[in-house]
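A quick aside before the break. I want you to see a complete sequence-to-structure record at least once, exactly as it would be stored in a machine-readable document. Don't worry about memorizing anything.
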Amino acid sequence: MRREDIPPLLYQATDRLPEPDLADAAWEGGVVIRRRRRRSAFVSVLAVLLVGVVAVIVAAAGSGSNSGLVPPTTPPTNPEDYVAPAGKIAGIDYWVAPPPGSERFLDRLETPLGDKLQLPAKVRRLADHPLERLAAVVLTKHGSYYRPLLLGSDGSWSLADVGLVAIATGAPLSLGAISPDAAIAAFPQPGELVVVDAATTQIVHVPLPTNDIRSVSWLADAQYVLVSGPGVTYRVLVSGGSPGEVPVVRISGVGDPEAATAPFRLQTGSVMRYLDSGQWAQDSTLSLPVRAWVGPTFSSNSMAARLFIANDIPQVPTHVSQPQVVAAISTLRSVPSRLLVLGEPLPGPARTPEADHPYVREPGCCAVLGWYDEGTALLEVRGWVLAWDLYSGRVRRVTELAVGGLAVGPGLRP
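That is the input. The structure line, written in tokens, reads:
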């Protein structure tokens, strides 16, 4: 091949290749250069800001104690209406309840009990008006018999078609009458337990070997109820159970019928836990200035509450009454126990003993009624139902009582 034949062949080969677009290549190069310049400017500005912040911090640190850095504080965990405790009794924080006579001026907790609880003028038979959830039970007297009046969570009343007779302590109404599922009410009777199902309207009589029956306390599963007299306690199967199970079993009893409660009971010196075997075992020790316990123990998921009449309490001296204290004792290590001391009348002009007497909370006037929710205990305090919020320390009124006795249940809360 001659040299002069090569150029024509090269021109022929390049004709088949795409021609480069120089304008596109120039544009892409310009975009890359602009991005680099913007990135460099941003980094420069950020470096200047960091240097400025460091300079301010160094200047503040060296300008004296008043301008020092303040570490972030932990936000308060107490409720907005928190009331500080008045002090400690036996190492437990205590609050003092509002004095007698001030109940009607307290803020009210809204419940189906209303502002004043009294017997209804008209009421339907339970058979005609079943109740899904029980809020409360009272008794009405008909000659020598008592009839149970059931208050539903909707605020309506029903009258159970059963006649109850008095027990050794009087009216056959125990503070623990209503089951944890708010469906059933149980009543102690001489030699038997009477069970009223508010939803199905069924009424059952369960015979018992002992005539002197005074108190009932439900187990958390709402299938069994502890029925007690002086020194004797029975576990009664009300619903469910296993095939062939004996419905009435005698278990370990205590001297005070109201002390047989589950899953916990408070007693002098210790907190006792109920076992499935029917025995009680010590859960923890308890050091309180107790003269006598009043009423049953009511347990929430983390607390057990009961009222006691105290020996003299130096922290809260009394002059016209014996100190009474609501003990809310923790059953979990992570939750603190709390005490509420029921106060005396406010100081004022001297009154005659007859005029003074209605304003004094005498021993036996008060008791724990149960729990409104996990952190609110319900108390009967001389003609009133009060609610004590354990988290805030605040005491509110629930209702004024115009009835002789009352048991409350979970149907109180929405």
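Two observations worth writing down. The first strand starts at residue 87 and ends at 89. The first helix runs from residue 6 to 14. We'll return to this after the break.
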